[in-house]
Every structure is written in structure tokens, then in C-alpha cells.
Design brief:
Low-confidence stretches: 173-181
Mean pLDDT: 88
Largest sheet: 4 strands, antiparallel
Number of strands: 7
Oligomer: single chain
Shape: elongated
Structural class: alpha+beta
Radius of gyration: 28 Å
Order of helices and strands: EEHEEHEHEE
């Protein structure tokens, strides 16, 4: 190709408010009898699900991530000597109304033998923020190439290639613990005070590489 080529990279960094908050809830039971452990786990799991579903459309999705019934062996005893059975259900929750999030977290954490972690703040996969970042990165590439061409006394004449290097969130720190094990038997039955949770700003980065053709530069001294 006889026409000069100008290769550039366009980048964009946008800040946006999160659209979804994800919680992980582990509900447990522990009994000396396997069936009793399973029955108690079923009861506590249902109580947790009923609480979450009472928030209606504020909760976008509730999923069961896994279930386990594990025998706990006596210390330094033969393999068949079981001292108890522990049951665990993992529930994944996606909250879209952040106004109820603090209340939901504390009420979940107040349930018996319930462990809550989160929130993990996210944008939706189809969020317009990603598209906006990609467009801005492409505009940046065009503007940068045009600036180089003008500096050489030339002008852009065509696009040879545009390569998308990716659009995504900046990796964040590990999710912090929002609430620990719930109250035990005999504790106060009063509703806990909602915890104040501030949404974490999401950083979205987009990068493109582009190659443009240009007219012959004017390299005569001025």
C-alpha cells in the first residue's frame, strides 16, 4: 500500500453507578442425627427464601448455588465414628433496589446460623456504559490519528483496521463481609437496625487500536 499509515490506540475510562448488588448467603444446621440436620436445614432455608421474596421486585434473582450434608467425625477416632452432621445451603441473591439493601443484609444476618457476605457491586452485562466507553475509545482513536496527520501536514483518507482490545470493569478488591453468623437461640427477637451501605463506583475501561491511511505528509521545513 503506497498511502502512508497512521496507527493509534484509543482509550476511555468512565465512572458509573452500579446497577446490581450481589449477596451470598450460607444457611447452616448441625445436629447429631442426619435426618434432623436435613430437616432443620430445610426449615432455615425456607425461612431465608421467604424473607428474600418478601422484598418483591427489589430482588431481581434468587438462586441456590449448592447444598451439602457433611458428617463431622470425632477427633482422632475411626472413620465411621460420627459426632454430628452439618448441612449447608448456598443462596445467591441479586438486589436492584439499593434502598432496601441495608435492611435486607441485616435481617438475613440476624437469622439463626446464617452467614452473609457482600455486597458485590456490578453493572449489568448489557449496560449501556460499556457501549458508551467503546464509542468514546473509538472517537479518541480518530481524534488522535487526525492530530498526528495534521501535525505532518496531511489528512486522513480512510480506515484500514479497527481492533477492539476489550471493554470491562477494573478489577476490584475482594468482597468484604457485610454480616456474620445470625443470632442464636435465646437472643433478642427485635429487628436489627439497617446497615448503611454506599454503592461502589464502577470503573469501566475500553481500548481500541486503529490504522488509518493518510495523504502524503508535507515534510518541507517551514
Amino acid at each position: 500500500m503506497d498511502a502512508p499509515l497512521i496507527s493509534v490506540r484509543g482509550e476511555a475510562v468512565l465512572e458509573a453507578e452500579p446497577e446490581v448488588a450481589r449477596l451470598s448467603v450460607h444457611v447452616q444446621s448441625q445436629e447429631s442425627d442426619r435426618r434432623a440436620a436435613l430437616d432443620r436445614l430445610t426449615e432455615r432455608n425456607q425461612r431465608c427464601l421467604d424473607l428474600v421474596r418478601s422484598y418483591g421486585d427489589a430482588v431481581e434473582k434468587v438462586e441456590t448455588g449448592g447444598l451439602a450434608i457433611t458428617p463431622l467425625l470425632k477427633y482422632k477416632r475411626r472413620e465411621g465414628d460420627v459426632r454430628a452432621y452439618r448441612g449447608t445451603v448456598w443462596i445467591k441473591i441479586a438486589v436492584v433496589d439499593f434502598a432496601v439493601l441495608g435492611e435486607l443484609v441485616t435481617r438475613l444476618g440476624d437469622l439463626e446460623r446464617t452467614f452473609v457476605s457482600g455486597p458485590e457491586w456490578e453493572l449489568r452485562r448489557d449496560s449501556e456504559v460499556y457501549e458508551r466507553a467503546a464509542r468514546q475509545a473509538a472517537h479518541e482513536a480518530v481524534a488522535r490519528a487526525r492530530g498526528y496527520a495534521e501535525a505532518l501536514g496531511a489528512r486522513l483518507t480512510g480506515l484500514v483496521e479497527l481492533s477492539d482490545e476489550g471493554v470491562g470493569r477494573t478489577p476490584e478488591a475482594p468482597v468484604a463481609l457485610a454480616a456474620a453468623y445470625g443470632r442464636g437461640l435465646g437472643d433478642s427477637a427485635e429487628e436489627p437496625e439497617p446497615i448503611d451501605l454506599e454503592p461502589e463506583t464502577q470503573i469501566v475501561r475500553a481500548t481500541v487500536e486503529a490504522r488509518f491511511t493518510a495523504t502524503q505528509p508535507d515534510l518541507e521545513p517551514r
